[in-house]
Design brief:
Length: 699
């Protein structure tokens, strides 16, 4: 419990370490020394600083230790656990600053009182700053901008602490320094952990390295928990530190399972920035022409008119051939979509990701790309079609390894192709047909989870279903383009090549899939043929690996392979998902066939409508054809029907005039037509008169 005299002040030294670990010492890491230097510079400049990083990396300890040395009496500390409003922030500042009297009731009086209190020198620490809203950040900027204030602000927080100030240009421009607290590298762990606690003082470096690789991962809070469990175990058992006791101590932590692929790349490839200052269409077409996901090259052309991070993730999924947007998640939550995107990139041979229009990147979009790069180890190429790079992008690139190249060097002119023609796609003869599969059956008895060493399917005399090559290619195409949810596609793909029941499919866990995706084990306690290991065909391996990678990225546990670790809602079951893409199960429900229509009673035949004609409504037909030397202009056009009162009445009733229809024109000129019509006994004659050019008389 925080006492009244300690409210708003720095915590005591014994509260710096997690769980108040007895015997723990403050060690001078590189991050702590950098925090101390940055805070000293910020206090001298009376400015703002943002210190951010994931939970447990020692942000609060570094800030408290530095301020305890630099400004112990001037520091006031605030901390929020939920979304505060502006009145909440006013009252929190009132209690942190500790002025005399009671809080004023009116906002104007409250602000006047706070500005007066801030005329004295203060260092304000806003811990867990990611919970602050835009209005709270605006209020802090208002207090800091006041002429009479002598205020230094230190923002600290976890995920979101960087993005929120970056989204406010007025506040972002006032932040003097930015610092991210990274995990401790292994060489620094081997140096500082022996000095962190006496239990590690005489320990060998090999157990420390093993513990960091399997459990701690450079996280100081994890090291504090492991040390707490280890000291308790040594005290109860009377044993000294050994490998078995060490493994027991960190077995209580949720561990990240070892996976042979990249899940957290400490040294990802450098970012390549391609400068295209004149926005030449040649370079854009060259980048689009290099798009080949099957060969490891992915080119993304972002959707214009939006700066949402979730939209960029949808663009990457669409470039991979997946349907977007994703169902089952909150529409504004980008975290599940980015996790699924990383899983698909890890499961496919994508090694290069080229992003066009990179000069329009926003801070939160670029942050998401860096997280994706760290998760997958993909080589990120940013093409900037502008003369100058944005200020925040230059600042962020200084913190990561990068190279800058010119567009003509990396994006030469692509080979010209025929205008208006695209390379013909591979034909799909079974594109719109239903396909019957010997799968998707259901067993009533549940199968329990087992840890057996299942033999191969061939050893149990089981032969997987064989599909014709044309059918297999069509099924593979549908499953790869059916959904962006890896567990749905992997579930149906496993049912296709194993012909297993849904109960057997539910027994598959992540550890039952081989790391390279070539084999999967299905468990069955005597329901059919027993537990067996099936060979995974090449077309289905990316689907199953993507489902496993999603579990490794999001949950880090050995859960059911064909379930969603992101807890999606509203997704279809397996049979409904199969029927949606015209894949038939061997048992009902089958898609209903169209019922034969009963013939209607014989009715009187309706009069046939006349052939559609073209009336001479064009100006060419009215003004010039009668006197022009080319009568072929009217050739094929009908003459108007007789215009009398009788034909008008019949036309209103739907009856056609008896002499209605096409009449051919003679190919002679106007003068020869007149002379021939005078000599002939035709029932009607077309003559010219002194009426306007559009007038025609019938005689």
């Amino acid at each position: 419990m925080v006492t009244a005299e300690r409210q708003g002040r720095l915590p005591r030294e014994r509260e710096d370490h997690f769980m108040r670990l007895p015997g723990a010492q403050v060690v001078s890491t590189r991050a702590l020394l950098m925090v101390r230097e940055n805070i000293r510079a910020v206090i001298e400049a009376r400015a703002m600083i943002c210190i951010y990083g994931q939970a447990g990396r020692g942000k609060s300890l570094a800030v408290n230790t530095s301020l305890r040395e630099l400004a112990p009496k001037l520091t006031r500390r605030t901390q929020f656990r939920s979304r505060p409003s502006t009145p909440d922030l006013r009252h929190e500042l009132f209690h942190a600053l500790g002025p005399q009297g009671r809080p004023p009731g009116q906002p104007i009086e409250f602000d006047r009182m706070l500005r007066g209190a801030l005329e004295e020198t203060h260092v304000l620490v806003c811990d867990e700053a990611q919970w602050l809203s835009k209005m709270c950040f605006e209020y802090l900027r208002y207090l800091w901008d006041d002429i009479g204030s002598d205020l230094t602000i230190v923002f600290t927080g976890g995920d979101g602490c960087f993005e929120m100030p970056q989204s406010e240009p007025m506040l972002e421009s006032r932040v003097y320094a930015w610092q991210e607290i990274e995990p401790l590298p292994l060489e620094e762990v081997l140096t500082v952990i022996p000095a962190f606690h006496p239990v590690w003082a005489d320990a060998d470096l090999d157990p420390i390295a093993m513990c960091d690789d399997e459990a701690a991962h450079g996280n100081f809070r994890a090291w504090a928990k492991i040390t707490h469990h280890l000291t308790a175990g040594m005290k109860e058992s009377g044993r000294i530190l050994d490998e078995d006791l060490l493994r027991w101590s960190y077995s209580k932590l949720r561990q990240r399972p070892v996976w042979p692929e990249v899940l957290d790349c400490p040294n990802p490839p450098p970012v390549t920035v391609v400068l295209d200052p004149f926005d030449d269409v040649v370079h854009t077409r060259a980048a689009l022409a290099s798009h080949a996901p099957q060969h490891g090259r992915l080119t993304v052309h972002p959707t214009p008119g939006t700066d949402a991070a979730i939209t960029l993730a949808h663009d990457i999924l669409a470039a991979l051939g997946k349907p977007v947007p994703l169902d089952g998640y909150h529409q504004l939550d980008p975290a599940p979509v980015w996790s699924i995107t990383a899983a698909w990139i890890l499961a496919t041979p994508v090694t290069h990701l080229t992003l066009l229009r990179a000069h329009l990147l926003t801070p939160h979009r670029f942050k998401s790309l860096l997280v994706l790069r760290r998760r997958t180890g993909v080589r990120l190429v940013l093409v900037c079609h502008h003369r100058a790079i944005r200020a925040f992008l230059e600042r962020e690139l200084q913190q990561v390894e990068h190279t800058i190249a010119e567009a003509p060097a990396l994006l030469p002119e692509a080979k010209p192709s025929a205008p208006g023609r695209r390379a013909p796609g591979r034909p799909r003869p079974l594109a719109n047909r239903w396909i019957g599969l010997p799968a998707l059956t259901v067993d009533e008895d549940p199968a329990n989870l087992c840890q057996c060493a299942a033999p191969l399917a061939a050893e149990r005399d089981f032969s997987p279903p064989v599909m014709p090559s044309l059918t297999q290619a069509e099924v593979a195409w549908r499953l790869h383009h059916a959904t962006a949810h890896p567990h749905l596609a992997a579930h149906l793909a496993t049912a296709v090549f194993t012909a297993a029941s849904t109960t057997q499919l539910d027994t598959v866990h992540v550890h039952d899939l081989a790391p390279d995706g070539t084999a999967v084990t299905l468990h069955d306690h005597g329901l059919r043929r027993g537990c067996m290991t099936h060979h995974v065909p090449a077309w289905a391996r990316p689907l199953l690996r993507a489902a496993a990678f999603l579990w490794k990225i999001e949950a880090g546990t050995n859960g059911p392979l064909f379930t969603d670790p992101l807890d999606s809602t509203g997704l279809p079951p397996l049979t409904a998902f199969a029927e949606r893409f015209k894949l038939r199960p061997p048992q009902p429900p089958q898609p209903p066939r169209p019922k034969p229509r009963r013939p209607r009673k014989a009715a009187k035949p309706a009069p046939k409508s006349p052939e559609k004609t073209v009336w001479p409504v064009c100006t060419v037909h009215h003004r010039r054809p009668w006197a022009a030397p080319g009568p072929e202009r009217m050739y094929g056009c009908p003459y108007p029907p007789p215009h009398t009162q009788k034909t008008i009445d019949r036309r209103k009733k739907g009856w056609l005039p008896p002499d209605y229809g096409l009449r051919g024109l003679q190919p002679q000129r106007w003068e020869s037509d007149l002379s021939r019509q005078r000599d002939s006994a035709t029932p009607w004659t077309l003559v010219a008169c002194s009426h306007p050019p559009n007038a025609v008389q019938f005689h």
